[in-house]
Amino acid sequence: MKRNPRKLKWTKAYRRNAGKEMTVDSTLQFAMRRNEPVRYDRDLVNKTMAAMKRISEIRARRERVFYKKRMAGKREKELAVARKLVAENEHLLPRLRGSEKKRLAELAAQGEDVALEEELLATRKNKIKAFGGETRKLKVRVDGGVEEIVESFRGEGGADEDEDEDDEDVDMED
Questions:
Q1: CB of 21 within 8 A of CB of 12?
Q2: Which of 29, 64, 112, 113 has the greatest number of beta carbons closer than 10 A?
Q3: Large ribosomal subunit protein eL24-related N-terminal domain location, by residue (predicted)?
Q4: Is 0.85 topped by the overall pTM?
């Protein structure tokens, strides 16, 4: 079956056409096939092998730089798409109650860190099951301090923690 190589994503032609591979690079010239056979010479082979190592190092460095330049604006684009999605579907997001808005406005007026308070509010609302054997809770004290509480618990099967912690593992040899 005939296929157009520029439409198959795994081909070099597609990657070059889509701007995913370097097309203009002097190190690519060395990989070209040559039609003139060269007589064997040990020194020439040694020089060629050393040059191949050096060229591969140079090419790897250039490919790394090329990739970083290509991905430079990706984070900003993703954030812009996420902001647009939130703006379009804002009606689906949970709303803050009036008392929460007033409290956040008062904190902002006092100059306190509103982002920290919003995080604390979010952690209190989210009820997430912990599979790692411990849960972390943040407690806000009356004096304004924040206290972190770590609670450990066993899993259902009891295989999360090792009961024989002081026993040493010994290989049995016959």
A1: yes
A2: 112
A3: 1-24
A4: no
Distance CA 122, CA 1 (A): 56
Residue 27 contacts residue 62 (beta carbons within 8 Å): yes
Burial 107-122 (b: 16+ CB within 10 A, else e): eeeeeeeeeebeeeee
- The whole-angstrom separation of Cα 31 and Cα 3 is 25
**In angstroms, how far is the first alpha carbon of the chain from the final one?**
62
Per-domain residue ranges of the chain? 1-89, 114-159
Region 52-68 average pLDDT: 92
Could you tell me the two tokens for 45? 């082979």
CA distance linking residue 57 with residue 75, whole number of Å: 28
What integer is the mean pLDDT of 44-51?
93
